[in-house]
TrEMBL record, chain A:
<dbReference type="GO" id="GO:0030490">
    <property type="term" value="P:maturation of SSU-rRNA"/>
</dbReference>
<dbReference type="InterPro" id="IPR042859">
    <property type="entry name" value="NOL11"/>
</dbReference>
<keyword id="KW-0805">Transcription regulation</keyword>
<feature type="domain" description="Nucleolar protein 11 N-terminal">
    <location>
        <begin position="1"/>
        <end position="332"/>
    </location>
</feature>
<keyword id="KW-0010">Activator</keyword>
<dbReference type="GO" id="GO:0005730">
    <property type="term" value="C:nucleolus"/>
</dbReference>
<feature type="domain" description="Nucleolar protein 11 C-terminal">
    <location>
        <begin position="399"/>
        <end position="718"/>
    </location>
</feature>
<keyword id="KW-0539">Nucleus</keyword>
<dbReference type="Pfam" id="PF08168">
    <property type="entry name" value="NOL11_N"/>
</dbReference>
<dbReference type="InterPro" id="IPR012584">
    <property type="entry name" value="NOL11_N"/>
</dbReference>
<protein>
    <submittedName>
        <fullName>Nucleolar protein 11</fullName>
    </submittedName>
</protein>
<keyword id="KW-0804">Transcription</keyword>
<dbReference type="GO" id="GO:0003723">
    <property type="term" value="F:RNA binding"/>
</dbReference>
<dbReference type="InterPro" id="IPR048897">
    <property type="entry name" value="Nol11_C"/>
</dbReference>
<keyword id="KW-0698">rRNA processing</keyword>
<dbReference type="Pfam" id="PF20998">
    <property type="entry name" value="Nol11_C"/>
</dbReference>
Amino acid sequence: MAALEEEFTLSAVPLGAGPDGLLGVEQCDKTDQFLITDGGRTVILYKVSDQKPLGSWSVKQGQVITCPAVCNFQTGEYIVVHDSKVLRLWTNEDVNLDKVFKATLSAEVYRIHSIPGTEPLVLFKEGAVRGLEALLAEPQQKIETVISDEEVIKWTKFFMVFRHPALIFITEKHGNYFAYVQKFNSSVLSKYTLLLGQEENFVIQSFTASLDRKFISLLSLSSDGCIYETLIPIHPSDPEKNQQPRVVRSLLLKTVVSGNARNALSVLDQDHVAVLGPPLPASKECLSIWNTKFQTLQVSKELPQGTSGQLWYYGEHLFMLHGKILTVIPYKCEMSSLAGALGKLKHGQDSGTQTMPHFVNWETSQGYGLESKNSEPSKRILRRRTIEPSVQPEVPASQQLLSIIKKDSEKHIEIELRKFLATKRTPDFHTVIGDIAIGLLERCKTEPSFYPRNSLMQLIQMHVLSYSLCPGLMEVALEKTDIQMLQLCLQQFPDIPEAVTCACLKMFLSIGDDNLQEIDVNMESVSDYSDAVQDEKMEEQMGILQNGFNPEEDNCDNCDKELSKKPQKTVEETTSCPVIPKRAALLNAVLHSAYSESFLLPHLKDIPAQHITLFLQYLYFLYLKCNENATMTLPGIHPPTLNQIMDWICLLLDANFTVLVMIPEAKSLLLSLYKFVKSQICICSELNKIEVSFRELKKLNQEKNNRELYSIEVLELF
Amino acid sequence: MGEFKVHRVRFFNYVPSGIRCVAYNNQSNRLAVSRTDGTVEIYNLSANYFQEKFFPGHESRATEALCWAKGQRLFSAGLNGEIIEYDLQALDIKYSMDAFGGPIWSMAASPSGSQLLVGCEDGSVKLFQINPDKIQFERNFDRQKSRILSLSWHPSGTHIAAGSIDYISVFDIKSGSAVHKMLVDRQYMGVSKRKCIIWGVAFLSDGTVISVDSAGKVQFWDSATGTLVKTHLVANADVQSIAVSDQEDSFVVGTAEGTVFHFQLVSVTSNSSEKQWVRTKPFQHHTHDVRTVAHSPTALISGGTDTHLVIRPLMEKVEVKNYDAALRKITFPHRRLISCSKKRQLLLFQFSHHLDLWRLGSTVATGKTSGKFLVPGKHGDTLPLSKDADHLLQLKTKGPENIICSCVSPCGSWIAYSTASRFFLRRLNYEHDNLSLHRVSKMPACLRSAVQIMFSEDSTKLFVASNQGSLHILRLLEGSFKHLHTFQAQSGTVESMCLLAVSPDGNWLAASGTSAGVHVYSVKRLKLHCTVPAYNFPVTALAIAPKTNNLVIAHSDQQIFEYSIPDKQYTEWSRAIQKQGFHHHWLQRDTPITHIGFHPKRPAHILLHDAYMFCIIDKSLPLPNDKTLLYNPLPPTNESDVIRRRTAHAFKISKKYKPLLFMDLLDEGTLVAVERPLDDIIAQLPPPIKKKKFGT
């Protein structure tokens, strides 16, 4: 249930907000800190929870800031543009903006975008986009014109779409609106025409957008007071054919504000939007939270002193100009239910305690994970190191460690981690370990050169981590082809998603033998099969001599013959293990991992056919090994069980049946597997018969022992 | 160590009665349990769940309700329409009073404990005032149209809820009139049943009434408005019982399917103050109907037709996760139902209304000399029977009362037993294979009823503990008897002596009640010799060793003391074991020791058993410490003698026979063990409600 909390103001320094309000409010690399750019010359860094400014910078008299200051999340520097063309970069330590790094560009800048996990982007007024690095390398480079004359950029937003940055901007030309989506992994610029529907004479007052799986959901607030939704595909279906696809907008919420005033709109989450504006033409301005799913007004707050018609939303804070004062309204939203939306569910509104969201919002966390997974290699070294101005109070060891993880070297982290692990375990030990792992991974993602392998291994070996405690660990290991780590994860984590298991399997099968030899792999589950193989060979040969079978016989009906034939057919495939011991150990780790069939099957289909054949060969080999002894087990400390082997054979055959039937090299393998299974079935049916007789015998025996009401026995006490 | 021929007896077809009611008393931490045969048992939950007292059943007294009132007074009411108060000291019925409302189905004591409500067959709810000596009828509430099956007081004592058939009434205590009548839906899974019986109600302090009914529902009602608030459908069969914790933050219901459900009041969201009742844990410890449940501060207690009393500790309420946090399942009484005549190898089995006398069989294969059938003496061998066990006699009691206790004399010529109102003595004559029974009449007036009976070793004296605290000694002559002496109860106490022990030489008599110490009397001088200092835990078994006249006492906390009667002090061995402490596995056993015996040739040996093990304590061997293995089921095979001697300790345990109801030494090398396998009991119970199981 959405709720607005008590507002507070950030106005230690009076803001020289012009008639158009502020230029912008932007996030900083430290949580809780925001860069506020006013309409004139000043940039202020606020710490919101303390309601106090940490720093303030101004450009010289006569210069005008034309674009809101942003923070470069990769370096911690701040970037601002003044006089449309002059770029300034500075850090916390700088005092005077005149003396900081300056770059004059050849074209006018519209906005600079910066979000965590990627380098900042500069959007020019003509629609061209440049990465900051490229631009700084050559500031005077030529900037092309993308949009037509008289087309004006109205609004823009920068996203991470599945690890890749994407920029959307809306332009207007004679009352027509166009949306451009620029993707940077493919450098494709897609242009869409926004069809406004019937109400074509209304102007769009405000835009906001959010990511909805494969679409950008663009919400627009029209001057008729309604909110419309437009879905813009992220991946254009056929950009070649249709030069300018059109996207139609649909009505999402009707008449939420009166259309005459300056209104603003911001998406809060999947189902909630914040709307700023007067609900009725005559009334005062209000901030309202609407649930778009249930079309209900969740909460509303009156702002009697008027606003500038601007609204920013970061994390849990809504920023707006109330009168002349910048106001922050914390916003909380628990998972909404129909009952909650309709007001049926009562909620304990105790103002004193902070309400925490009680449900883990999987969508959000997953989205976050995807966004933060991006790790574009940064080509620029840090210009200057930022120093935390505040002094750390007494913090728990884990917090200290987390802050160490954020900035120190791998070696130092490793030492600190060892110290931390040596201390006494607290009840929340596993969550702390999870947090540390996530901290390490976060840094891995932002800093590609950073890979604290030893520390991660150490954490995994604490036996408390699970996949869900540190999502992304195995992905990073897969990315780095860290075989040893993957094996350890497979052995330790109980909850690895099938997709990841399968990705590991793929890697284990595809990696070259030479590469494998260099890697240190835990060989516990693999015992030396060579002796056994020798024995088997001998046995088989003896069998052949004794039975004197007919090799031309190809009839599978006779079980006895099958039994005797089995060895000869399988000799060529089973005399030696089809994979080297190290690979066998890795494959065994996969065999041991838990899975759910229906989730694993689709992923198994993606493995190339020759790898499937190899894996099947290995499984067949293990299966034969199992059958060598009466207990149906493999030698070794922690070998795969017969059930696991059988299950995986079934899975592989199920998933790749058609493929295996088609390829010639699998044919003999399948045939011998079939024959062997058939012979096994014969044995089993025989065993079944014997078992029944034994069961009866046992029953008789037991009855004799237990049903007797009276007996005289001998008891000896020791 | 010891090699024995064991007569393994399984023909004692004893079936405990089903449990009808349980009532938990928070102050004394005691649990009263009534069974379908009218027996009422008192368990002391503080003393390792020991059954310290029992009141014998009565055919006409089917108990339907049991409750504790102020001053730890225990009341029961039943289908004979009477309210009974029990005398917990003298182990007797204090009085019974007819409520004049037909069979009584329900009873509840007021929160203050000074008033008693009963719900009767004729639809009346009657209020009684509890006076110090008796209860007094006060008035009737508005008559309802059908029987009142359940009653519950509001904690403030101003209102009550009464469950009837198809509806629940809320009464105002002052006016005695029904304030609300809440109709219960008869529908059951869409099918309309004929009637919906409200088996239980609970009135919470916030005015919520919780009802459980025959349609399998647990329902929450608002007593202020008389409206239904919430329904939980918990079973396909009847929900038969409900009990609420004192804090009203959790309650428990029992169903006819044998399932017990725990409901807890939990917050809707983790920080909010709003709470709701949530069904949290199901327990399936019963196979049959759970007729009754109770909720102690730390445990859920349930009992039913399958005769088990189940005490399931709530793990979140248990502070220390030790052995007390384990589930307890009490099936067998903590007293002896079997006595044995060593000389004639007879076993006397006590049932509620009859006694069975059996003669044990024999084998020609002897322990040491190798016979022609097999090589005897190997552990675990079954010896061939040359003569099977004979059922010699079945002795039925007349009248509706249950047998309290019974005993066969060591010589096998006397059988004594007692009901609540009469003491019986029978003389047996053996002429070759013929057995004749003579009634010994004209029992002395003082011998009205007995709690415990004991014969002396030479069968010449009979010791009877009466339920008024006095002990009688009778001299037995051929076919008659003579009253020798009566030891009166200690001045000021009327506590009954539940346990007796006689020294083999017949000179000493030890008797123990439930709380005070063990008294030792001199039979020769007919006076009190000494009193063993009182111990915190009740005595579960007593015996006096031959020759040394050491009194061995077992307590419910599994401690064993050895007290020298001639020296009037604890023996050295007893001091030593108290100093070192018992092995932790020994202390963790959950059934009490019910019998202690001695070996005639080996004075250092003490034989004792509980329901799951038989043990010989060899006092000459070193005591085990916590590091040594207490119970070693495997015989030392190829270990060297040195190791064997080093690891040998005083406790020689066998867990071969279980559940073990009786075990004693017949002669030097022969034991008798009476087992009662649980499967055999289950086989004699009525079939449980059939539940569809997956795959069947």
